[in-house]
Design brief:
- The protein has 4 helices and 10 strands, in the order αββββββαβαββαβ.
- With 174 residues, the chain is of the alpha+beta class.
- The protein has a 6-stranded antiparallel β-sheet with strand order 7-4-3-2-1-10. A 4-stranded antiparallel β-sheet has the order 6-5-8-9.
- The protein is globular.
């Protein structure tokens, strides 16, 4: 009787452990203070474009909830050179947005001779998004298409009201 019970319970136990160890999908937004003590909340992800080039996407908000939202796209220095201003085209299904290039308004990026980063106003996109839908980014002369998965969009959508807790990261279930 005992071997039969073990034989029946082993698959159930394995399934229960597997389900328990699989993390739930949660957006990760990190909070910290910048060098001036200003609270910053950000989402940082590395994604690949259709040419398999890696890009770092940093969506962030400085200051209190409701503050300006920006998206920084960073390429490998020396491998890419971004000209400014160049608008970022964002598509999702039949929706389309043009995000303004605000790179030169950031003194650190404006003075960086490597020109491997660009920054865009993320607010118009987030104001229109009401779902965590996949996005396609197009940056003329740089990449033809950079797919952004829904979990990254969820992170971005959580930024406007995310609490800035400079003690580290917090999970924001979506």
């Amino acid at each position: 009787m005992k071997p039969l019970l073990t034989l029946l319970l082993a698959p159930l136990l394995t399934l229960a452990l597997w389900l328990g160890l699989t993390p739930a999908a949660q957006a990760q937004v990190h909070a910290h203070n910048d060098e001036n003590g200003t609270p910053v909340v950000r989402s940082l992800e590395s994604l690949r474009d259709l040419d398999y080039q890696s890009w770092q996407l940093v969506a962030y908000r400085e200051g209190a909830p409701g503050g300006p939202l920006k998206l920084r796209i960073v390429g490998y220095p020396g491998k890419v050179r971004l000209d400014h201003p160049t608008a970022l085209q964002v598509r999702s299904g039949h929706f389309s947005w043009q995000l303004a290039d605000v790179t030169l308004a950031n003194p650190q990026l404006a003075g960086d001779g490597r020109s491997a980063a660009a920054e865009f106003d993320l607010a118009p996109l987030l104001a229109d998004l009401h779902q965590d839908r996949p996005l396609r980014l197009v940056l003329a002369g740089v990449f033809v298409e950079l797919p952004v998965p829904p979990f990254v969009v969820a992170q971005w959508r959580s930024l406007p009201l995310a609490a800035a807790r400079p003690t580290g990261a917090f999970s924001n279930p979506t």
